[in-house]
Here is the input.
Amino acid sequence: MNNKKAVACTLIAVMTASACSKPTTVEPDKPITDLTTQQESASENTTSSVKEYSVGLSDIELTDELKANIDIVNKDLFAYYQKNKESDGILTEYGAMIKGSKDEEVYVNNIGSDVGNSFDTKTADNTEVLLIRPSDFGAVNKIKTLEGKTALAPFTAVNTKEGYYVSSDGIEGIVMDTESYRTLRFLYMFDHGTPATPEKGDGNYEKLMNAIGMHSPYDVKHMVMDNKYALVIVGSLTEVTNIGEYLLVCDEKGSWSVGMDKLETITNVKQAVNEKYPDFQLSFLPKYVIADYGKIYAESDMQENINTLLENDKITEEERRGDRYVCGVGDFVVVHFFASDRTMVGHMAQELSFNTCKDINAQVGTMLQYDKQPPAFICYFNE
Here is the structure.
């Protein structure tokens, strides 16, 4: 929230934990990079289930003239949203409209319309641009005609003497008191307990993998969860190109189920997730987008490259003959020899070169020497 919009009354809401098992917080050695996951920053930003949100009333009079001007602004806002939704990666965060590409909030005085002709500076400063579901707005205000309208839509909320006047293009405005307005905004709160990274042997790890339904042997590339949601990226060790990205949801009874799958095929994955689950912690998503990297290759697709490695005198006879994990994409290939439990990362520049890596941090670190945002999802994590 912009500080200029903070007002006198501070309301504190305590979010209750769901019925899911409390995540076990894992404290691994600090990784050399935060490339593969944003969960560290998520932990820093979500250390408490208590969220402060400042609301209160201004001294602006809600006149018929102001309502008419709000209608004009709502039409401009709708046009702005339609035009910039994809290019700016527009998201909702705590119900506020955010330019995902720039990580900044959208305000009425910068939507590129003639807002100045409709709002004076004071009114503009007391107006919040929301991106919420009409069905949520309807549920809080008991408007049955908005039931089922779950697609995110732009709204304005003007802070007036009478209350928050919340409206949208084609949706009549409602004056909401501070408690109701807070309730509406908190539907989009993504604080659902402390983020955690379950490890093998942890009960939550097994529950999530059972919900996904992938049978072993598999390689978990990324797993982070809170009390309501989880994000898992997992690949098959028998079909290495089969790498899936899943969003899971915990119900009130504590059971996990897949809410979204095939996220690995979506390029605008943040928006897709935000649209369906606007209270999902987006920092659970890895920084890479799998769909951006193109085709994933198995050993049979890269036989020439693998032959180069196998001809290397540093490879033992046992490694040559034994089973191995081979996965590649773009200019990178990862090879893990099961016989020796050794992993090598290869990169094709002018010629193919390989580096032995002792652990996952070393794999990612090797990739970072060549690419600031490498495809860490092809790494071998199953250590």
Residues 64-84 form the longest helix (21 residues). The first strand starts at residue 10 and ends at 14.
